[in-house]
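Mods, move this if it's the wrong board.
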Amino acid sequence: MEAGKEVPVKQAFSESKTIGVDFEITDFALFQLKKRLKILSTRRTLQRYDFQHKLSFQLVSENRAIAVKNLNVKGIIMNHYSSQAIGDSTWSSFVTKLEDTSEWLGKTILMIDKFESSSKICHVFGYHNSELTLKD
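Not the wrong board. Structure tokens:
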């Protein structure tokens, strides 16, 4: 207690107004772990959000138009090999940030159909390489 202050008088209590708290060490450790994971998850989410904003602003401000392929994200997530990476990247929110930033800066976003064979077409000369497969 601080100097010059009186110690408060303890109040009377009854069983009806009394609770007992019994934390086992494992319960307390689990509570602390869940709390820490929530903090880390929030931090990771904020970092991803910040990265997407910075990248979308950089891409839009450096280019007059950006072509974005309309991916079937739900279908990609069904593939268990790539589902974690695609799910973590939050592709759709990045595309939304690109669209918002381009509208704000007066730039153009071009949505390419998912069935368009854009990887087979040379972006410089327009040559169509029909022999290119998914394996390549």
